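User: Fold this one for me? It's Aminopeptidase N.
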Amino acid sequence: MTREGQHSAIHRADYTAPAFWIDTVELCFDLDPAKTRVLNKMRLRRNADVPAQPLRLDGEELNLARVLVNGQGASFKMDGNQLVLENLPAAEDGAFDLEIFTTCCPAKNTKLMGLYVSNDSFFTQCEAEGFRRITYFLDRPDVMASYTVTLRADKAKYPVLLSNGNLVEQGTLDDGRHFAKWVDPFKKPSYLFALVAGQLVGREQRITARNGREHLLQVFVRPGDLDKTEHAMNSLMASVAWDEARFGLPLDLERFMIVATSDFNMGAMENKGLNIFNTKYVLANQATATDTDYSNIESVVGHEYFHNWTGNRVTCRDWFQLSLKEGLTVFRDQEFSQDLCREPSARAVKRIEDVRVLRTAQFPEDAGPMAHPVRPDSYIEINNFYTVTIYEKGAEVVRMMQTLVGREGFAKGMTLYFERFDGQAVTCDDFAQAIADANPDSDLARLLPQFKRWYSQAGTPRVHASGSFDAAARTYTLTLGQSCAPTPGQAVKEPFVIPVSLGLVGADGRELALRTMDGNTVPSPYTFVMTQASETLTFVDIDAEPVPSILRGFSAPVVLEFDYSDEQLLTLLANDIDPFNRWEAGQRLAVRSALKAIAAVADPAPLQPLNTAYIDAMRSVLRHPTLDAAFKELVLTLPSETYIAEQLDVVDPQRIHAVREAMRGQLAVALTDDWAWAFDAHADNGAYQPDPLSSGRRALAGMALTHLCLAARTTGDVVWPGKAYQRFKDAGNMTDRFNALAALVASDHALAAQALPRFHAMFKDEALVLDKWFALQAGAPDRAGNILPAVRQLMKHPDFNLRNPNRARSVIFSYCSANPGAFHRPDAAGYVFWSDRVIELDGINPQVAARLARALDRWKKLTEPYRSAAREALVRVAAKADLSNDVREVVTRALAD
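Assistant: Here's what I get for Aminopeptidase N.
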């Protein structure tokens, strides 16, 4: 037993429809931090398709005061956390009225699930199973009801009262109180319920949709933050316009509201018409937010708005279908961000950034103990399955569907999907079938049963490719094979449907025409659809051995294995017309150099992992007259330590860290003059604009400054650190200021000790900026073993608050999850710190604790002494008697054989 009940697994195969439906819900809240009263009046009816059984309602941490059935007192019993009612009246239509009166204490709700208080305001978070912490209910996504909500509260303390849908009535009550009544015209599951009450101010914008309807858009924040809401509002307007233009999906409510809170477990939540956001994804102005913040706000605002159709109007039948809404909506927000990019190079940069997240976060998950299919088969705690597999890999599965049916065909499939299922709770199979049925002549329709293995099989497929050139026959033959390693619970994998986009590049860098054996010319890039374990395709009229450019645009979420020579990779890096594979060639060269240096016997002399050809290639990219600055920055960014580790069977984190730091230092010194040119050419960008072109220039200038400060460690130069400090002081925007500060911290220069307290003094009242300040220090390179002591000191800082998820992540996660060189200490002190924090956080907020627990997912790959020490730390956490289900599931799976 745990403090949340028995931790038994829930299986997708056991799904059954609910025994009752809830048609209408009338909720009345008397809001009080210590004792909120909730009156819940429901109209229920039996599900005639399910055998008669008692009504079992979910509830957690509620004080039950009254239960009435059809206005009369009713007998009931408690079974764990469930309220059970038997012998319910059998009206002709099986319907009856149920009234439940409960109280709860939002002020003590540190889990931030259900109804809670943050900065003296009320907020809710009900996904996945938070509504049961507000009232007893059938808290499952396939029970969809119409909601009428009345909020009552002290008018002076809580002047703004918000809930889902349309405001139909408001007024004043006795004793300084007031009320607001909201009606949501659309049926929804309980996880989409929301209320907000507090001291808030709003930015408003009226818009007219394509159909002529007028809508009110509102962004609510705490007083003092209104000047940081313009970008969020602009992003919301762009989202509304894009969804209408791309998919014909209009805004369906009179108003659409966004509310920001600083205490939030997630990024944001798509509650119908009332999206609640982490402040991190709403607040921005040039003085406090970086270009990355601006980009993330645009993406997340889009994501939550797009859920209005893909998640709200059509929702999940059960939580195993989570990717039905999340994978699809991540794909939609990625497409949205790409479509807003006017230049092809900016679209390519966005695609590369998305793939980089997938490969550095999801691929390791696929290879670790928490590996699960895009549509899981079982779980113990659903909160643990809000993962990069569900979201990012799920998005790639949807992207492959679009590849197989075409952009217009995919739009047709979306239209059919909503025609069939609007207002229903459905499955991933339903979505895939709609896309296929709208495109009956497509590869997707032909291969749908096999394609759906992407939903049922975990793991990252590997595509093994080899090429053979026949000079006499003037042919080039490409052989492609696929395999997928076993994952927990899945030993054998059947072949996937894998769209492989490819082209051939001549030794002189030219794109070659593709002609098949039957004499037809196929477009380049050509998308070959793999379905077998091994397949071969041959191209004719090839005069000299080409370099194959395979998996262009990252056309499938797979690992490509091809034995490229350095010369071939340099050819692709310099000439490939596909920006993704051009970037990928540089990454492969860097990884190859890193792995060679890691495998070498440790040399007491300074490491020089990079050869002259690679350095010259990077110089050519940096100096290239036409390449986009953002693309240059991506190519010149070395693969992360996490990504390098995933290429190894046995991982020595300190060796990886030392090699990558040596590579950075070598690039810094070898390209000093080029970095100086790059900084001077890109440092001045005029008036601040967060557009892709300007952002790319600032990113490249920041990278140049970092490398110039790193080079100064070797050369003893004082000029560039001084310039960095001056830029830190004089910068007109947060991106340039923070890049300069990061350059000083990354190089461990003495001026960092002056800049850090100065930065804190400048932004001591800006919580999101202080998160950056904390994260920068916790994630700094650990050259003297001093980062863990610094992290411990940061946790004693007056501005540190463990109960705030953003602040906890800024320090603890930045160290344990994002700073492997500092975390994996030979003395195991990092692991001890991790176990202490997981246990401490679990008593406050299990969701945050479970995320932190994932930092040691891959402990079995570690070399000694790290491996034994990491296992000891996991065992220590697992031995805690009252662990939450959230954390216990993670550590139990990590320790499993």
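One thing worth pointing out: The chain has a mean pLDDT of 97.
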